[in-house]
Amino acid sequence: MFSLKNIVERKITEYVMFISTLGYTLFKVADRNIGDVFLTLLVLGFIIGLISNWKVLIQDKILWLFLLSLLSQILSWFHGIYFTPYTPSFFSLSPLANLFYFFILAYWLKGNAYYIFSTLTAYCLGVILACILHSNAPVDEFLLGLTGQRVDFGITNANHTAALAGSSILASIFMIYFFIKEFRIYLRTWYGISYVSFLAIISVINLLLVYMTFSRSIWLALFCVLVILIFYVFFRNVSFNMKFLVKIIVVLISSFLLIYSLLQVPQINSRVFEEHEVIAGLLEKEPDEIASSSVGLRVKFWYSSFDWIKEYPILGLGDRNARAFVIQKSPYLTQAVKDEFQHLHNGYIEILISYGLLGLFVVLGIFFIVFKNVFMMKSMYRNYVIWGAIAFSSYYYVINIFESFFMFKTGEYIQTVFLGCIYSLYLSRTLNNKKDK
């Protein structure tokens, strides 16, 4: 008998959705039009799946949080119109709603390790493909980057290129580690060696991209990931045997030597320390006295936001264009800066300005629910998923301090792919268990 449930559960549907996942992951940034075609297929497929399995799916708190995201944006819109001096001009449910695309990816990946690895591999390739397609002369730009010039390959700006490359490094290193730990036997085969070598090459390319973009926020984020993972491993181990302590010491010494060596590169050293005087003077100067450098402008943007956040803390000003309004009203910025910049360079502040604490509750609630469910999950791969969740969230939280990735397509893409892969195993097991009951 024909039914929507039969369509969703057919293998051909699963394969079509898997191919669509790869298409979205590979092309979303490289060629947005192609990527959106695959995303549309994923969304339509999920809607059919939701209709046919709504009694099971609706029990997931992520979907309830999604409904809250819609409500919060509607409330913020009306609040902005009637209770603030700002008049919202951009009514859209997509800024917060789009952050839930990861649930659709998680649903179609079905907790399948092959699907997840393929998706992460497609992501790594997609980052490189985006650099090739967006740049007018990718080879020349790559060579220019090797000489110490800052490049961005035509992807919004260098910070966005670096954010994509940095997350690709996390993905490729994670896959190499997982493959060596769980599928070591395949390293005796040509295809196993080829795959690990391929991932290693991708890691090197993306490390070079992170270097070429000279994005200090991404360097800091990757450093924080390393530190947090070391602490997680250290405090998670309860035996503290000699073998474990030797490993920790080796990792710490290696990390120190790596960071010290990197700081000896003149371009990196200059980029890291070039604004130390600006940073040192932040606590002593008034906002309008701070130099309009890269760091200084960010601090001025943030200062410009604080009074608005204090005045309208719960629902914000009403839409994502409120960030430009705040910049235009700032007493700390010159007109030239106001004409050049349209966002506040901080994802958390932009959410607060646009949608208030209710909006920020939605955004952070996503990660809280994912973390809670992943930590409680029973699976032989649980520890790997937790590692991935800690690494990605640490990275993503840090980069949002200095750029508004929550509100940009780049951040939406990164969050969709990584949270989709992280949440897939839990979601798949939960849905299967509830169906059996």
TrEMBL record:
InterPro entries: O-antigen_ligase-rel_domated (IPR007016), WaaL-like (IPR051533). It is a multi-pass membrane protein. The chain crosses the membrane at residues 12-27, 33-51, 63-83, 89-109, 116-137, 157-180, 192-212, 218-235, 244-263, 351-371, 383-407, 413-431. Coiled coil: none annotated. PANTHER family: LIPOPOLYSACCHARIDE BIOSYNTHESIS PROTEIN PA4999-RELATED, TEICHURONIC ACID BIOSYNTHESIS PROTEIN TUAE. The keyword Disulfide bond does not apply. It is found in: Membrane. Its main location: membrane. The lineage of its organism: Bacteria, Pseudomonadati, Pseudomonadota, Gammaproteobacteria, Pasteurellales. Keywords: Ligase, Membrane, Transmembrane, Transmembrane helix. This is O-antigen ligase. One of its GO terms (molecular function) is ligase activity. It comes from Testudinibacter aquarius. Pfam families: Wzy_C. One of its GO terms (cellular component) is membrane. The keyword DNA repair does not apply.
